[in-house]
Specification:
377 residues; mainly alpha; globular
Length: 377
């Protein structure tokens, strides 16, 4: 599995984590049912965002089915997205094509065991099979994967033109275009064409962030091996890469807020919180300090103390005057929405209220889908 959106059950409400797992396992089993066991290797944490976005727009819940115990779920049963669901099939198609592109990239770079010609040949044929399988599944839900294949093919040509002083965003454009097309197609499948432009914008920003974070994660290793890296090729330092990621995340959140969704709880948890955490985690591990406080969405400024004060309480955006933080302490008692924070987190040593994501960003979207006792539920 690969991707940047990897929610932890210790930082996500139980019901939202179960919903996320239903989409993840649904994607994995759809790949198996449609294309065989080996196709499950293409399971992509970010690919399931497509089925999440589709379900959030549809007037009714997607179709689910019970799944047998699996080792990756601790041998627990689960309710997972059906393989017949168009969201699962679109997510499978996109995951296969992007996995094919990533595999070909590893083959071209002769990474690890792929330095052996025989293994590189096997990987190349596997990638070709995945690309063809993704195209067949995409056609079944009305999505032409040619835009994805074109983006993969153009990536190498774009990278060959990069020189010191060029914008690193030239390198992210093919990824942005591919993700924008996939996200926008969920609006068509959901019968909400008015969302297509907004989802394309969300996709462009997400693709930009994903590409940049991948470059940051590989930065030191690529430098040691002398391999291509868009940041090194353009002379973009890690601080500038962080600024670009945070700007893109801010734009993503604004575009997300304009979408017409039936249920935005899981979408916001993944594309707002988890993407923000991925940015923070990646740069913290790369040794780049966070010099900029998180930019809250409208209505998230805390009251009770001056605006911007880290211990102030937020007014309820629904007009309720009850604060979400009392005396600097979270009012939650059994919340699992973020009281545990990893050492790289900016909230690691903060108060309970600051550590809880629901408290920092609640706009009542967690109502009816959250098992914590915060007064917004």
């Amino acid at each position: 599995m690969f991707g940047i959106v990897r929610p932890c059950r210790h930082r996500m409400c139980g019901k939202l984590h179960a919903a996320w797992l239903g989409h993840l396992c649904g994607l994995c089993l759809t790949l198996r049912d449609e294309h065989g066991q080996r196709a499950r290797l293409a399971t992509n944490y970010d690919g399931l965002l497509i089925s999440v976005l589709l379900e959030a727009q549809r007037p009714a819940l997607a179709s689910y089915r019970p799944a047998a115990p699996c080792a990756l779920r601790g041998f627990q049963r689960a309710s997972v997205l059906s393989s017949a669901d168009p969201g699962a099939r679109l997510a499978a198609a996109v995951s296969l094509v992007l996995a094919a592109g990533k595999t070909r990239d590893h083959v071209a770079d002769r990474d690890g065991a792929l330095r052996v010609p025989a293994l590189a040949g096997v990987a190349g044929r596997l990638a070709d099979g995945w690309a063809e399988a993704g195209a067949r599944t995409g056609n079944g839900v009305g999505f032409d994967t040619a835009v994805l294949l074109d983006a993969v093919d153009r990536q190498g040509a774009v990278e060959s033109t990069l020189v010191p002083g060029a914008s690193v965003l030239l390198a992210t454009e093919p990824t942005e275009t591919a993700v924008a097309a996939a996200f926008a197609h969920t609006a068509i499948l959901a019968g909400r064409p008015g969302n297509a432009a907004g989802l394309a914008e969300v996709g462009r920003y997400f693709g930009r962030i994903a590409h940049l974070l991948d470059a940051v994660e590989d930065h030191a290793d690529d430098a040691a091996r002398g391999a291509f890296n868009p940041l090194r090729a353009t002379g973009t330092d890690l601080a500038e890469a962080r600024r670009l990621c945070e700007d893109a995340h801010h734009g993503l959140r604004l575009a997300l807020a304009d979408l017409e969704l039936r249920d935005r709880a899981l979408v916001r948890a993944l594309l707002d919180r988890e993407v923000g955490d991925a940015i923070e985690r990646t740069f913290a591990l790369a040794g780049v300090p966070d010099d900029h406080p998180a930019v809250p969405l409208a209505g998230h400024r805390r009251s009770g103390q001056p605006a911007g004060h880290p211990g102030a309480a937020e007014p309820r955006p629904d007009g309720c005057g009850a604060p979400l933080v009392i005396g600097g302490a979270c009012v939650l008692t059994t919340c699992t929405c973020g009281l545990w924070q990893p050492r790289w987190s900016r909230y690691h040593r903060r108060s309970r209220g600051d550590r809880c994501w629901c408290t920092r960003h609640c706009d009542c979207d967690c109502c009816n889908c959250c098992d914590c006792d915060c007064d917004c539920c």
